[in-house]
Design a protein that fits this description.
single chain; mainly beta; Immunoglobulin-like; five-stranded mixed beta sheet; five-stranded antiparallel beta sheet; 48 strands; 47% strand
Length: 569
C-alpha cells in the first residue's frame, strides 16, 4: 500500500496573513455532489446529465464526484472495474435505495431523501438540494492546488482551510478525492456502446476513507496541509492518465455533513517544451466503401498549451494527406481529431498510418491501425430474422445504405410474459449493389440475450447467413456493415473453383482456392468457431476437435464470398 506523506501547519488568527490562496472573506457553501453509479445502470446516464447541468449552471461552485459502487458497478465479462475500496463505505451512510442516487454535501433535505433521514436522493431532487445549499452561508472556505511531476508521477497537493466563523464541533475532517476524467468505456443506457465518456470518476481518497482531523475550528483559524502521493500506472488495470486527473477537497463535520469544498486540476512539471503524441487511432470496423475519415486522439505532452498541429496520414501506403488541427490543449490533455475522408483501394486487410511531423520527441509521433473489408454477397434477396427476449418493446433495428437512407427497419416489438425466445416475422427485401449498415438497438441496454431469454438476430442472403451478420449479446446496440455486389457472380474465375473435400469428413479437409481468402467455420446459428487466412491453391484444415454435426464454411476473398455446408461425422 502506498504511503501518503503529510505535513501540517496550524496558524492562529494572528497569523492569518500567512495564507496564500484560500479566500478569507465569508462565502456561501459550495456544492459537493457525490453520485453513486455503475456501468450497468440504465438510468445512470440521465443522472450524469442532471449533475453536469447543475455544475455548468454554477461554474466554480459545484463539484462532482462519481462513485462506482453497488451491484450495477460489478463488471461483466470484458467490462472495466471502476470501483474503489472507498465507495461502499461512503454509500453505506447515505440510506440509498436505488440507482442512480446522489448526496449533496452529505446533508439531509426535508422531503427530498430516498427515505426519512436519508442523505441519498433520486436524480430528480439534486437540483433543488444544490440550489438550497448554494444559498447557505459557510463558516469555512477551502482552497486546493496540485502539481504532478510527469516523470515520477508524484502528486503534491496543498490544501488551505480558513474559518470565517465557528464550527459547531471542535474537530472537522479534511477530505481530498482524486478523480479521473475522459475514460471511454461501456455504459448501459448510454446509447454509445463502449465509447461512453466517464467523467469525475473517483479513483482514490488521498486522505483515506474519512479524512484527516482539523482540531482548531474557530473563527479566524487557518490550516494548511500538504500531501505527496504517487499515482500508479493503473487502477484496477485501467490506465491512470495523469493529464485527466482532478482534485476535490472538502471539509466535513464528523464523516457526514460537508460544509464546503473546492476543486481544480493539477499543473505539471518535468515536461518537454513542445511535444505532441499520437495517443491512439479509433478502431475502424469492417468497411465496404473506398473512402473513410479516420479519428485520431492526440495528446499534448509538452509544457506549453498546444494550439495547432500538423498531422500526416495515409491508407494502404496511398498518397499522403495532411490536416492542420487547431484548438487549445493544456499539458497532458487529449483531443479526438476527425481527419477528412480520403479515397483508397479497399483490400481484405487495410492499414491506416498517422504521423506528426516536426516534433521534439519523435518516439511517440506515429500510430497505425488495421481494418478489414466487410463481407460481400452477390445475392440481392436479403432476409432479416429477429427473435427477441421477453422485452420485445426494447428492440429496434434498421438497415441504411451508403447515403444514410433507411431502406428497412423493424420494432419495437411487443413484450411477452416469462423468459424465453420470441421469433418475429421475417423481413424480406431486395437490395441494389451498395454498402449497407445493419444496426440493432436495445433501449434498456442489455441486448436480447441472455438474462431474459436467448434472443438473436440474423441477416441472410439467398437464405444463407451472411458471415458475421448475427448476434444477440450486444448491450445497448451494435452496427455491422456488409456489401451487395452482383458482379461477384461473374468475376474472372468460376465460383465452382472454390472446393473443399471430403464432405462429409472425419475432420481433415482439403480446401482449394483461386486466390487468398479468409475461411471461417460457424455453427448453424452463426456462432463463429474458427477463422484462418489461406493462400491460393490447396490447403488443409483440421476440424477433428469439433463435435459431429452440420456446420457452415464461409469463404471471403477480395473478389468473392461463398458459404456452404459441411458435415462432420
Amino acid at each position: 500500500m502506498k504511503k501518503t506523506l503529510l505535513t501540517a501547519i496550524l496558524l492562529t488568527f494572528g497569523f492569518a496573513n500567512a495564507q496564500t490562496f484560500v479566500n478569507t472573506n465569508p462565502e456561501n457553501k459550495k456544492v459537493i455532489l457525490e453520485e453513486f453509479t455503475g456501468v450497468n445502470c440504465v438510468y445512470c446516464p440521465q443522472g450524469h446529465t442532471i449533475a453536469n447541468n447543475i455544475k455548468n449552471a454554477n461554474p466554480n461552485n459545484v463539484f462532482l464526484i462519481n462513485i462506482h459502487q453497488g451491484s450495477f458497478s460489478t463488471p461483466g465479462a470484458g467490462q472495466p472495474d471502476f470501483r474503489t475500496t472507498f465507495g461502499n463505505g461512503i454509500a453505506g451512510q447515505t440510506g440509498l435505495t436505488g440507482y442512480p442516487a446522489g448526496t449533496v454535501n452529505r446533508s439531509v433535505f426535508a422531503g427530498l431523501g430516498m427515505a426519512t433521514g436519508a442523505t441519498a436522493m433520486g436524480r430528480g431532487n439534486w437540483t433543488n438540494a444544490s440550489n438550497q445549499t448554494l444559498n447557505q452561508s459557510s463558516y469555512v472556505n477551502v482552497g486546493v492546488q496540485g502539481v504532478i511531476d510527469a516523470q515520477s508521477r508524484q502528486l503534491t497537493v496543498t490544501v488551505e482551510v480558513y474559518y470565517t466563523g465557528n464550527s459547531p464541533v471542535s474537530t472537522n475532517k479534511l477530505n481530498i478525492a482524486l478523480l479521473q476524467n475522459n475514460t471511454l468505456g461501456p455504459q448501459t443506457g448510454g446509447n454509445m456502446g463502449n465509447n461512453y465518456n466517464h467523467m469525475h470518476r473517483l479513483v482514490h481518497m488521498i486522505t483515506g476513507q474519512w479524512g484527516t482531523d482539523i482540531t482548531t475550528t474557530t473563527n479566524g483559524s487557518f490550516y494548511t496541509q500538504t500531501f505527496n502521493y504517487t499515482i500508479p500506472a493503473a487502477y484496477n488495470n485501467i490506465p491512470a492518465e495523469i493529464g485527466e486527473m482532478e482534485l476535490v477537497a472538502f471539509v466535513t463535520e464528523t464523516q457526514q455533513k460537508i460544509i464546503s469544498g473546492n476543486g481544480g486540476k493539477p499543473t505539471f512539471t518535468g515536461l518537454a517544451n513542445n511535444d505532441a503524441k499520437v495517443k491512439s487511432i479509433e478502431t475502424i470496423g469492417t468497411q465496404c466503401t473506398n473512402s473513410i475519415g479516420p479519428k485520431v486522439t492526440i495528446q499534448n505532452n509538452g509544457q506549453t498549451p498546444l494550439t495547432s498541429l500538423s498531422i500526416d496520414y495515409a491508407i494502404n501506403s496511398g498518397a499522403p494527406q495532411n490536416y492542420v488541427w487547431t484548438g487549445n490543449l493544456a499539458s497532458l490533455t487529449s483531443a479526438i481529431v476527425q481527419l477528412p475522408a480520403v479515397s483508397y483501394t479497399l483490400l481484405p486487410t487495410n492499414t491506416v498510418n498517422v504521423t506528426i511531423p516536426n516534433d521534439d520527441d519523435v518516439s511517440n509521433n506515429n500510430g497505425s491501425i488495421n481494418f478489414n473489408k466487410a463481407v460481400e454477397t452477390q445475392f440481392t434477396n436479403i432476409t432479416v430474422k429477429i427473435s427477441t427476449d421477453q422485452y420485445g418493446s426494447e428492440t429496434t433495428w434498421n438497415i441504411k445504405n451508403s447515403a444514410g437512407t433507411t431502406v428497412a427497419q423493424g420494432g419495437p416489438y411487443t413484450d411477452a410474459g416469462g423468459a424465453g425466445v420470441f421469433p418475429k416475422p421475417d423481413v424480406n427485401l431486395t437490395l441494389a449493389n451498395d454498402c449497407y449498415t445493419f444496426s440493432i438497438i436495445d433501449s434498456y441496454g442489455d441486448g436480447m440475450c441472455c438474462a431474459y431469454g436467448n434472443g438473436s438476430y440474423q441477416v441472410l442472403a439467398n437464405g444463407v447467413l451472411i458471415p458475421g451478420m448475427n448476434g444477440g449479446n450486444f448491450g445497448s446496440g451494435e452496427s455491422k456493415k456488409y456489401g451487395v455486389n452482383t458482379n461477384l457472380s461473374v468475376s474472372a474465375f468460376d465460383a465452382n473453383a472454390i472446393k473443399f473435400y471430403p464432405n462429409p469428413t472425419n475432420g481433415m479437409i482439403t480446401i482449394s482456392l483461386p486466390e487468398m481468402a479468409k475461411v471461417s467455420i460457424t455453427d448453424l446459428s452463426g456462432k463463429l468457431i474458427s477463422t484462418s487466412m489461406l493462400e491460393a491453391g490447396d490447403s488443409t484444415l483440421n476440424l477433428s476437435d469439433l463435435s459431429s454435426g452440420i456446420y457452415l464454411i464461409n469463404f471471403i476473398g477480395d473478389n468473392f464470398v461463398k458459404t456452404d455446408k459441411i458435415i462432420l461425422k
